[in-house]
Design goal:
The chain is an alpha/beta fold. It has 3 domains: 97 residues, 3-Layer(aba) Sandwich (Rossmann fold), CATH 3.40.50; 68 residues, Dna Ligase, domain 1; 159 residues, 2-Layer Sandwich (D-amino Acid Aminotransferase, Chain A, domain 1). It has 15 helices and 15 strands. Strands 13-12-9-10-11-14-15 form a 7-stranded mixed β-sheet. Strand 10 and strand 11 form a beta hairpin. Helix 2 packs across helix 3 and helix 3 runs antiparallel to helix 5.
Length: 409
């Protein structure tokens, strides 16, 4: 272990599920953590004992740059390492890289690489030009005649925005929408006013949650992989189209090799990952989404499997020499408690098999929130759910009691 007492602190632009792996990996090594959050940040992601300072700030655009330069850097005696945990922050820091470099150490691709890979249209063009297997995709601008374009779409399909920005999150609050038929798509268009968005409509790859695979990676400045961690999702929320609720590590050389080919060809550096869906029809792995410049939701699974990507990223940002890390421990589970809570609710409401719900938890586990040495994020989450549950129970009881009272004469 290196002597880290002389090493600079870390600034994390965005406290969320992906940030927890950075917070705990580096915090446990004695590295100071400064976290930026906004009004949308859940309190439990702010509750880790390893976060020594929290600053409320916009997490994208000029406002983020102003916070970093004028509020954060001025309080630092040395150049801190900067990590981003959401796409908008990555786009901002890469766009203003020259302005930020005198104040922070960070490893990100050039802005044009970041923009073209985060853009669904840009990535699709890149993938087709470089012979990567992706689902058939149709792009519709906000001004397009969606109804007439439906004729060219095969069903079932999924619908998502070209850029998942605040406008989409506030209006829809789902990563993607699923349409079984033309009628379903028409209903979604009317329900969510999709004519106001630039849309990506993609063929549905047949397969359940456990057919979604991923490769978490870190690429150094020479575009060489320093760490790879492959795995698959076991459950998502919402089912089929959501974010990772439970995942496990699995060794799949085919996915690792194809991921490195993509990351190298596109010019990725820093945190990155590639997501695949294995088709139940032809058995092929289709690339569904890359992540550039930031850790992915399930990044915490890598430390439990023996590949400490956040620490590797920190050392690389400092210019330390880091050699490639070897294989992973397979069968390690990662559990995202907030999303598992909703999956449990659904299991209870629909009177589904509880044993089936628990089954993916078996074996060695790591968690998004719970950690024996850092329990507060989990406790804050549970306290919030208990408080909300008691509030709902009180409201229901009050309504029932009121309904039994005799009417005034």
């Amino acid at each position: 272990m290196r002597n880290l007492t002389k090493y600079p602190p870390v600034v994390i632009a965005g406290l969320n599920d992906a940030s927890m792996s950075i917070v705990r990996s580096l915090g446990q090594k004695g590295i100071r953590i400064i976290g930026l959050y906004d009004d949308n940040t859940h309190s439990y992601y702010q509750s880790s004992k390893y976060i020594s300072q929290k600053l409320k700030s916009a997490l994208w655009g000029q406002a983020l740059v102003d916070t970093l330069i004028h509020r954060v850097s001025r309080s630092m005696k040395e150049q801190p390492v900067l990590f981003c945990t959401n796409d908008n922050a990555v786009l901002t820091v890469s766009q203003y890289a020259e302005e930020l470099k005198p104040f922070f150490k960070f490893v990100l691709p050039p802005y044009d690489v970041v923009f073209n890979q985060i853009s669904k249209r840009g990535f699709s063009t890149f993938a087709l030009e470089n012979s990567f297997l992706i689902p058939k995709t149709v792009f519709l601008d906000a001004s397009s005649d969606i109804e007439s374009s439906i004729q060219d779409i095969s069903f079932p399909c999924i619908v998502k925005p070209e850029f998942r920005d605040q406008k989409w999150n506030e209006a829809i609050r789902l990563k993607v929408l699923y349409a079984e038929s033309k009628k379903d798509l028409s209903n979604l268009i009317n329900k969510y006013q999709l004519k106001n968005f630039s849309l990506v409509i993609q063929e549905w790859i047949e397969g359940g949650d456990s057919e979604v695979y991923f490769c978490l990676a870190y690429m150094n400045r020479d575009k060489k992989p320093l760490a790879l961690c492959t795995g698959r999702k076991l459950r998502q929320y919402p089912h089929l189209t959501g974010s990772t609720s439970v995942a496990e590590t699995v060794a799949i050389p085919e996915i690792a090799d194809e991921s490195v080919r993509l990351l190298t060809a596109a010019g990725y550096v820093g945190f990155c990952s590639v997501e695949f869906k294995r088709s139940k029809i032809d058995g092929k792995y289709y690339i569904t989404e890359p992540t550039v410049g930031r850790p992915d939701t399930q990044e915490g699974i890598c430390t439990g499997s023996g590949v400490d990507i956040p620490y590797i990223a920190y050392l690389d940002a400092l210019g330390q020499k880091v050699g490639p890390v070897g294989g992973i421990k397979t069968g390690v589970k990662w559990i995202n408690e907030p999303l598992e809570f909703y999956c449990l609710q659904k299991t209870v409401w629909n009177r589904m098999n509880f044993k089936g719900f628990i089954s993916p938890h078996k074996g060695f586990r790591s968690y998004a929130l719970w950690d024996r040495d850092d329990p507060m994020p989990a406790w804050v989450f549970l306290k919030g759910k208990a408080k909300r549950g008691m509030s709902r129970l009180f409201k229901i009881t009050l309504e029932k009691t009121s309904s039994r009272l005799p009417e005034k004469i």
